[in-house]
Amino acid sequence: MEVMIISPNSKDPEVQILSNEFKNRGYEVRFFIPSTIKVGIGFQPKFSEQFDLLEPRAGLVRGFGAAATQKIFSRLDILRAIEEYDVKLINSRESLEIASDKFLSSIFLEKYQIPTPKTMICEDSHQALKAFDELGGDCVLKPLYGSKGIGITRLNDRAFAENVLYSLDQLNHVFYLQEFIEHQNRDIRILVLGDKVIAGMYRVSDSWKSNIYAGAKAEPIELTNELKNLAIKAAKVTKTKIAGVDILESEKGFSVIEVNSIPGFTALQKVSDINIAEEIINFFLNDAKS
Fold first, then answer.
1. Greatest CA span in the chain, whole angstroms?
2. What is the domain extent for residue 53?
3. pLDDT tens-digit readout, 114-131
4. How many domains does the chain have?
5. Are residues 42 and 139 in the same domain?
6. DSSP H helical segments within 8-119, as ranges?
């Protein structure tokens, strides 16, 4: 039996953990690395034939690893082409498109009445500076595409905000500005698989950035039904079956910041008794065969 993992880096430690979990169940793992793929149309063998040995006919998506705009669209196109040949992707191409794009995520969260911070998206730096004022003079500037807290900047001084925004305007930047919510330097990450919450953690930092990659530490959390239901709903509305849902807790309650369609699990595993890789593979195989 052959199974496929889609990832920009087959040597990634979490990809290797998932690969070993497949191998322990008797599967041969094939890595599909987007940057190395050459797609031929009208050539033999056909692009679709490389998926003929998959059982189940599905692929576990652990990233598509693009930063340049053309590559983002090109690799999303490849995922869509794979789905066109009846290979089920978990997560789907649609999920990656929504969850990896902070603008789309915000739209979906608002549409389905999931609490999320006030946000403004525009291309003009003058409008962005006006948005800075409308967001109370304290907001977070984020790249539309990105993860791990990379490229995120807090703007809470108007002169500094003006300098940053006008400088980025020269680089044809798209401005995604989100109100800053005081959160005591911690947030909540919840892992959702389908209709079930698997595990959760606090991410606690010495600064307002509470990403593990930026130095935050994982701490255990006792998840309430309110948190579980919020995370499941956020994953569902963004069409993300394997989801890492990030939530801020403040005086006003809970707010969903984003939904990650390629959630890391190393830090979460440290504060959880559940074998997360095993749960992910169980879910993938069951959903792929359904």
1. 61
2. 2-90
3. 999 999 999 999 999 999
4. 3
5. no
6. 13-24, 69-84, 93-99, 102-111
